[in-house]
Amino acid sequence: MIRTVVVVGALLLGVGVVAAQQDKVKEAQDMMKANGKNLGGVLSPMFKGEKPYDQAAVDAALTQLDDTAKKLPTLFPASLKDAKWEGDFSPSPKIWEDKAGFDAKIASFAKVVSEAKAKIKDMDSLKANFPAIGKECGGCHETFRVKKG
Ligand code: HEC
């Protein structure tokens, strides 16, 4: 009897762990999708002159990127190593194998975003500072993100 309780308890615990893991996966994916929307849907069209410059939209986009930079250090805990990633991308195992390298990418992304927040005040400063942000996204993805399929 006690044994059954222990086994059922352990199974329930297992289910709880998997659910928590999937929550973390979703958190990371939602955050990255928001980055993509802000970069590709807000900043890039302004940079290319397809949309008029809009300081409020720029500030909101940069604030979200800054938020990502602050969350990135805890966005991929070791418990996600064997998690299931739906969709087109998954994290590379290098995130956990080369933690120092990953942390360095986060630090340089955080620096570029905070500089952009301080500097982007008009079209000229957007033009001057936007490319560096995109480079940071690509720089991390190149090593630490895997395209599936
Ligand atoms: C320090 C590393 C790092 C930085 C910086 C980074 N990303 Fe990512 N990104 C990842 C990893 C790892 C994944 C794969 C796991 C995931 O989807 O969360 C990813 C996934 C994505 C995805 C796919 C999400 C999905 O599931 O469809 C998009 C879109 C994305 N990133 C956009 C961006 C943009 C735009 C920036 C820059 C503003 C950026 N990322 C900066 C590491 C990074």
Structural class: mainly alpha
Proportion in helices: over 70%
Low-confidence stretches: none
Mean pLDDT across every amino acid position: 93
The tally of domains stands at 1
Rg of Cα set: 19 Å
* CATH third-level topology: Four Helix Bundle (Hemerythrin (Met), subunit A)
Which distinct ligands sit in these coordinates? Answer: heme C
Number of helices: 5
In this structure, how is the largest beta sheet organized?
2 strands, antiparallel
Structure, described:
- The structure is a single chain.
- This protein has 149 residues and is mainly α.
- The protein has one domain: Cytochrome c/b562 (Four Helix Bundle (Hemerythrin (Met), subunit A)).
- Helix content is 77%, strand content 4%.
- α1 packs antiparallel against α5 (123-144), α2 (55-75) runs antiparallel to α4 and α4 packs antiparallel against α5.
- The radius of gyration is 19 Å and the shape is elongated.
- It starts with a helix and ends with a strand.
- Heme C binds next to α1, α2, β1, α4 and α5.
